[in-house]
Amino acid sequence: MNLDKKEVVFIGDQIFTDIWGANRAGIISILVSPIDKKEEIQIILKRKLENLILYFFIGVKRKENKCLVERQKVYGIIANPVGHSMSPLLHRVLADSMNIDFAYVPLNVKEDLKKAIEGAYCLGLNGMNISIPYKQEIMKYLKDIDKVAKSIGAVNTLIRDESLQGYVGYNTDMWGLKKALEDNTIDIEDRNIIILGCGGAAKAVIYMCLENRVKKI
Q1: Catalytically active residues, by annotation
Q2: Rounded to 5°, angle at Cα 85 from 79 and 88
Q3: Which of 50, 119, 145, 204 has a CA 20 to 30 Å removed from the CA of 194?
């Protein structure tokens, strides 16, 4: 498939054949709990040995009722399509420059957004960005939504919340545009503004315009 190793995440439930092998190949790996609870005795014994290795040599323990034993923080972007997104590249460059160890993967969700969000939480993703066409629909499947994001009516950032057992939604589009205007000393107060588009990002722009008391939109 001609993929860069940094663009691949290997998910498995066995340390020796899955996780260790992926790590040896330089691929990011995620260790999950076994899907099939009815396993043969030799597999059960091997699981016990894996738990000992996890606890004594890696410093973590596989927990009951947990879908993921965290080895590295994983983030992603949900969109449809997502192949054109520059987010994985941008986050990788920023992470390398700041010496932060995490994975950021593109997630092409073509249908059933609710199940996608539930699956992401089960797999242990720490957070996600949301892009076209889901910035508004995503709000139905979140445990909580930031006050500004509620006012805007769109969410583009999810943060994992263990206490709520789900994700909290935020909108950073507005703050990003506001900072860009400030950095370039552009004052939009009492000015006429034209907005091209009517999606989630446009909602954030409208909110920012109202906050800055523009003359007309």
Answers
A1: 135
A2: 100
A3: 145
